[in-house]
Design brief:
Layout lengths: L1 E2 L8 H14 L7 H14 L4 E4 L4 H9 L5 E4 L5 H9 L3 E4 L22 E7 L8 H11 L2 E5 L7 E2 L2 E2 L6 E5 L12 E4 L3 H11 L3 E2 L3 E2 L10 H10 L3 H18 L12 E2 L6 E3 L3 H13 L2 E2 L20 H9 E3 L8 H14 L1
Parallel strand pairs: 1-15, 3-4, 3-5, 5-6, 6-9
Antiparallel strand pairs: 2-10, 7-8, 7-13, 9-10, 11-12, 14-16
Helix pairs in contact: 1-7, 2-7, 3-4, 3-6, 8-11, 9-11
The structure holds pyridoxal-5'-phosphate.
């Protein structure tokens, strides 16, 4: 069976020896040695100043909205995982959808300004599949209208844009370390902010608002990463370049075997992480035929991202033609280090026959 992804598991002995240190110290959560060590290593590897490890990649989005004191309307993308939008709603704000660029698949920055009202407080956009949004244009719009910018960078571990970590753009960036992502801690995530005061606020919010043992400086929630997750992160991190290169090898096989016009477009100036291999088919009908043919061979791609988030049942009616159209036709192909050429070839053959 070939699934859309396969979690990288480090050598068990390496994970085990990190666990031994937990057994020795008896310290299993609340910002122990391993989590802090992981944060330091991430900060060095990613070249980001402030990194906070968290329990998953969704809480950081909610914490960012809360810590920035956002209210009213938040402009966002309909083409992402549900967590981007559910976090906005969960925090009592209204998501205002701006359609996506038909090739980059990120929010169409040229349509943002017309969606801004007196109630708009922020832009929350996703670097979808690790493909950077037009961060420069968004920065200009945000400055002009006094808006905060949060990037859901869940897919972006290791991505650089214009020579620097993609996590360094916007007021806050969030990442997911879920088992299906490029770098993982089983469940986990991180939050990044360049401004030290803002980072301190995010930190308080992720730990109940605790300041010392008895003072509470803000409202907070529990988004702490545990030592068990920290240990997994420390065991996986030494392999990250191998993981990204392994993904690159497979992605390049696909891109040689499949027609270029069904692949998406990476923004110029990006050092990508090969996080996904989306293909954009002619129609949902064609997609369904391909999914069926692949499943007969025990190959299971995934419909990421479907449905277009403006269609969620708990949201008021809105229209995003491009996102709705693309989400009906986009399919993410199996992509993980070590996926053998013979399988990539088989997948490409099945697809090419139906195009
Ligand atoms: C995976 C993902 C999340 C959520 O991360 P979790 O770690 O699963 O909570 C948020 N946004 C996007 C775009 C994602 O793909």
């Amino acid at each position: 069976m070939i699934n859309v992804t396969k979690t990288f598991l480090p050598p068990q002995s390496e994970y085990q020896s990190l666990l031994e240190s937990i057994w020795k110290s008896g310290w299993i959560t609340n910002r122990g040695v391993l989590v802090r060590q992981l944060e330091n290593k991430l900060s060095t590897y990613l070249n980001t100043e402030h990194v906070l490890a968290t329990a998953n990649g969704t809480l950081p989005i909610q914490i960012a909205i809360k810590a920035l004191g956002l209210k009213g309307e938040i402009i966002t993308t309909p083409f992402s995982y549900v967590a981007t939008v559910s976090s906005i709603v969960w925090e009592g704000c209204n998501p205002i959808f701006v359609d996506i660029h038909p090739e980059y698949l990120t929010i169409d920055d040229t349509k943002i300004e017309e969606a801004i009202t007196k109630n708009t407080t922020a832009i929350l956009a996703t670097h979808v599949y690790g493909n950077p949004c037009n961060v420069r244009a968004i920065e200009v719009i945000a400055k002009k209208h006094n808006l905060k910018v949060i990037y859901d960078a869940a897919h972006c571990f290791g991505v650089k844009y214009k020579q620097q970590s993609i996590f360094n753009y916007g007021d806050v960036s969030t990442c997911s370390f879920h088992a299906t992502k490029v770098f993982h801690t089983g469940e986990g995530g991180a939050i990044f902010a360049r401004d030290k005061d803002l980072f301190d606020q995010l930190f308080l919010h992720h730990n109940f608002g605790h300041f010392g043992k008895e003072d509470f400086l803000s409202i907070g929630i529990n988004a702490k990463m545990s030592e068990l997750q920290g240990a997994m992160g420390l065991a996986v991190l030494p392999y990250i370049d191998e993981i990204i290169n392994g993904r690159k090898t497979v992605f390049e096989m696909y891109s040689q075997l499949l027609p270029q016009d069904i692949l998406f477009k990476i923004r110029e100036g990006t050092q990508w992480n090969y996080s996904y291999c989306p293909i954009i088919l002619k129609s949902e009908k064609q997609l369904k035929i391909i999914v069926k043919k692949l499943s007969e061979e025990a190959i299971f791609p995934r419909r990421y991202f479907y449905p277009s988030l403006n269609k969620l049942s708990y949201l008021p009616h809105s229209v995003c033609k491009i996102s709705e159209d693309i989400s009906q036709r986009v399919l993410c192909l199996p992509l993980y280090p070590g996926l053998e050429f013979k399988y990539v070839e088989k997948i490409a053959d099945i697809i090419n026959k139906e195009l």
